[in-house]
Amino acid sequence: MATKLTAPTPEVQYLPAIFRRIQRGDIRMPAFQRGFVWKPSQILELLESIYRGFPIGSVLLWRVDGPILRVEEQSKSVFPQNDDSYPAYFVLDGLQRLSTLYAVFHFDPKHHDKMFRVSFDLEQRTFATTDPSRAAEHSIALSDLFSPREFLKRQQALASTQEGEALIDRAVELYSTFQEYLLPIVTIAGRDISDVVGVFERVNSTGTKLSAVDFMRAVTWSEHFDLNSQITEIRRDSEARGFSIPGETLVKVLAISMGKLPTPESMLELRESTSRDLLRGVKKAKDILARVAAYLSSYLHIKSYAFVPYEGQFLMLSRFFSDSGSPSDAQLRTLTRWFWSTSFSEELQGRSDNQIANNVIEMGEFRSGAKTRLRFSLKLTSETLLKRKFRRGNALSSAFASMLAHVQCRSLFTGDEIDLNEYMTDDAGKNYTALVNSDRGEYLSKVVANTFVCADADLASARQLSGMSIVRRLLKRHTKADAEEILESQLLPDEVVQALLRGNGKQALTLRAEHIVKIASELANISDDTP
């Protein structure tokens, strides 16, 4: 019989009552939260909303009756540090608002950023971030409002001003506004972490989307294992190989290294792992990432994570290389065909976590020999290459860039092979230039079929010359055979070159798009027996 879940409990509470709960450690910031991310303008907007009596949304709390999660350290939270006690209420949604209100009304220069030092101008009736030494005599610091002693002192100072009585009335009105403001609180209880993940991922009222990965940081923490520091170490290890990989992707690779799927539900199972097991997983994840980087570099000439079309591909490769021992040559050939096909076909576009998880399972079965084939097919047309713009980070563009690296593209100006580090790294977008210009000398839309690679030293010249001029200069400086090799290395066969020389840019790009599709088919090695 299914367990009956407790419905969320709604209530409203006055701000001072909420502040007291924070002070005694009843309301806490869990480690999976990302800390305070609001800008000073957002702080002032929130205070203005309350002052004008506007609703600011509800706060979602999760009641925890035991030490399930770690409370965030003081360096990250504006809340006071307290000894653990239970039950406790972790903030799932509303952290930015609660942090703002608590820090503004309890500002402490030792623990809070100066952006929380807010005053209210009693004459202009406006909020501002101020330096106390420069505050106007007719203003009041919000941190004085709920301190009886400081509020009384401020009233006495206001009384000595020319409009003292009116200013004091406004100060009392300000105090009453915040004292009597009711904030909706919704509390969920009787839920396990998996349930809370589902709730948490659907709540995004502040625009700061957090995922199950953030929960994983908390549920795996112990005095012997801190996921944050371990991910930082893994990232540094990968960056030394030229691969700057997002933290969430690294966490998913860690999960794969420990036999889990890269889904929130599966990754949360790691909370049952010991610190020793987790550290072993970190070590294995480093090894997996090293093997994936070596494969991408050797077989596909990809030197940067930025040129891996999809995270899903990277996760599937991680699963392939997570098995011990060396894969067979036949498996590596199939793997390479699969990578080219899925990249040019953009097969993983829009796939859900569960769909990627199924692909990871399939890759594991292929690696173990339980399956002899991977499912893939090339779906690429010349029309696509003529319509889609070249953009770094786009799957089709990344596949095209890797194709140019694979054929070892050479400079159309010098004939020398272009260093991969100039056009296959994170900041290489500038090296991809339009081939055909309009009659006015302006660049046409830089579609994939209209893109070639420039070495850093060639960029200035490329901006000044048309594709026709570049080709003519090349033909004059090199023998016919050498020129053909150089041009082919930029996927410019003779029929494309001749169209360029005739000034027929549209035909040249159409022919080049057809040539790119032909080369992509060869790389994917599509044949009748392809699964």
What does this protein structure show overall?
This protein is an alpha+beta fold. The protein folds into three domains: 1-210, no CATH class; 219-368, no CATH class; 382-524, no CATH class. Helices cover 47% and strands 8% of the residues. The chain has helices spanning 15-23, 40-51, 95-105, 148-159, 164-179, 193-202, 212-219, 227-239, 247-257, 264-267, 275-300, 311-320, 329-345, 353-368, 382-387, 395-406, 420-423, 459-464, 467-477, 480-488, 494-501, 505-524; strands at 9-14, 27-28, 59-64, 88-93, 118-121, 126-129, 139-141, 182-188, 432-434, 451-453. The strands form three sheets. A five-stranded mixed β-sheet has the order 1-8-3-4-2. A three-stranded antiparallel β-sheet has the order 6-5-7, with helices on one face. A hairpin with a 4-residue loop joins strand 5 (118-121) and strand 6. Helix 9 packs across helix 11 (275-300) and helix 13 (329-345) packs antiparallel against helix 22 (505-524). The longest helix is centred in the middle third of the chain and has 26 residues, at 275-300.
